[in-house]
Amino acid sequence: MSGGAGLGALAALAAVIVMSVWLGAVAQRAVQRGTFVKGYFLGNRALGSWAMALTATVQSGGTFMGYPSLVYTHGWVVALWISSYMIVPLASFGVLGKRLAQLSRRTGAITVPDLFRARFDSPAAGLTASLLIMFFLAFMMVAQFKAGASIMKIAWPGSGALALGDDLPLYQLDPQALNNLSSASVLDAETRRALEPLVGRGFASRAEFDAALKLVLASAQRGEDSELRSAIIRGAEQTDWLFYLGLAIFTVTVVGYSLVGGFLAAVWTDLFQSVLMFAGVVVLFVLVVPVVGGLEVASRKAVVATGPAFLSGPGYAPDGRQFLPLGMAVSYFFFWVFAGIGSPAGMVRVMATNSTATLRRSIVLLAGYNWFIYLPLIGICVAARAVMPALEQSDEVIPRMSLWATRELTGGSFITGLILAAPFGAVMATVSSYLVVIASGLVRDVYQKFVNPSASDMVIRRLSYLTMIVMGTIAVVANLRPIQYLQALVLFSGGGQAATFVVPILMLAYWRRATTAGVLAAMLGGAGTVLGLFVAGWLGYGPSLVGQATRFRPYYLLNCDPIIWGLAVSLVAGIGVSLLTKPPRAELIRPLFAGSGSEP
Amino acid sequence: MPRDSTTRTGSNAAGSNGDPLLRSARREAIVVFALWLAAIVYTVGYSYTFGYDRPVESISYIYGVPDWVMWGIVLPWGVSTVAAIWFAWFFMTDEPLGDECERPDDFDVPRDARGEP
User: Fold this and answer.
1) What's the CATH architecture for A3-164+242-593?
2) Residue B108 is assigned to a structural domain of this protein
3) At A62, is the pLDDT very low, low, confident or very high (cuts 50, 70, 90)?
4) How far apart, in whole angstroms, are the C-alpha atoms of residue B31 and residue B18?
5) Nearest-by-CA chain A residue for B15
6) pTM, whole model, 2 decimals?
7) Do B39 and A333 make contact, defined as CB atoms within 8 angstroms?
8) Out of A47-56, A317-326, A586-595, B20-29, least confident range
9) B52 min Cα distance to partner chain A (Å)
10) Stretch A218-225: mean pLDDT
């Protein structure tokens, strides 16, 4: 293969890393004004409109990997799946922006749990919020580490990114592994002979490999011996060194700059990647669409490669599943809007705004930005289905498409690099902002609140660093066996946060009568419902031919995503319990609901 | 350009009638919710009616986009973008966000020891 594109891509990733570290260092200087906590966790409330607009919403590696993969797999109906992004700019800044910015100033809140604690004068509300935030973010963050490491792997020269479909398999029986198993007397001669047909064949998943083993071992009457099968599986596991190298570089970089620059480093790198992503999508769209002969030709070719359902709802699927039945279409119109409103990482950024004019400008900027990101990506992925009809790893559709589109251009490797760097930057920025939120949760909401309220700046600083290093280590350990289901985890975490926090934060901001018990019921009701449905789905309940093809799936009750049921339970519980409990004290409510500085 | 609610509400801004920011924020939240409702009804309604289980031959293309995607998604997306610009420039009001509460970070100090009401 030609190493050129690979080297260009690697150079671009290196440039992104250097840029991020530099931004982290600059952020550190800015953070040093004022107290450590407010600077490090909230950037001294000085975010302007560009930083606000392009970083406060639910973008992540998912925008460049999970979403394109769905378009590639299911076709045009994914436009409907994503379409609530048309309202996200309004929802993210127009519903709570002003009020959260004001309340957090009045109460001196630095984190979202601070806000709950102050508004309800209840440490329990603060702690519950904090623990739930950490729970949902931790899931998402671990998944993002895998995404980051995978992109580095693709960019590596010689990793085979230009030759389609030759990823290093996770499981492969080679003669060496057979010898090892024989000498450990796991295999007798007959079993060994039975395994011969599998030698050299690669398998992407454990389940696939297990099924193949069952089949060949049946000839030696050992097909049902699950102990033997797992011993063989262990022996055939392939170590994916490039993945681990990518994981190591990714982790050191992202933990490093987050630790140095805190909140501002996360925001600035996020802004940087958003601009990169914008450029990447526009360039790719312009390069790809004319070459395939326009979207109509691409759509027709895609239909030939797949089936007529690629053009209409509920979407194409080889196994006949209903990707987007009506209930799911409605669910996803809730999903992105409420996940935007209910994301604590987004709320923190709104709390850090410098003025309401910034919020207004952010709405306009984000509306324009979304228009140029989400719709063109559909076109690019439809075209991808036309020119590369059978990708094995549909998650890689954008990087592979950029390699394809720039293969004959002079300077093409640079453009590929740019396009590959965008999702890499997105993943880094997401992880970084979660690291900051989780660290602020542990340090401020748990340590400072319950262990040592009068901790000095120095102690808090060291503890924040320590938390981030520990979180990074946990994410690496969790990925030693690369976790699967990236997009499914993103949906679990986003939906869970929305169901947990949308109703409580609206109660906090706009409802005088809301009580501590009510807000706790709303949080726990929403979180419990989503969790329960995911556990039920994991155990195998519910319709299996709805939504995405993944094992990590919730119980789609009545064909709706859990977010619908979570929001409904949260709303009923929040209002019901509030009305059943004693109204909050007037002196607690008055300063937060009356005009500023003019209380009687 | 956005109106400044402190001039519009006149003497009310002093506080007898509640917080002007709270009132405008609440009103804006309700408008966003209404826009969201209109968007979901139209987009999902149109797409489900005209975009589901269509025979391939019946689908025409507008600038390369299948007809139901163009009218059911691209068009309302455009309208939403214009609505967002209207909301931000002409409807949403600017308000002072108030001063930072200069409470020390050791927020565990009992309420009355902070010298607050």
Assistant:
1) Up-down Bundle (1.20)
2) no
3) low
4) 20
5) A595
6) 0.82
7) yes
8) A47-56
9) 4
10) 75
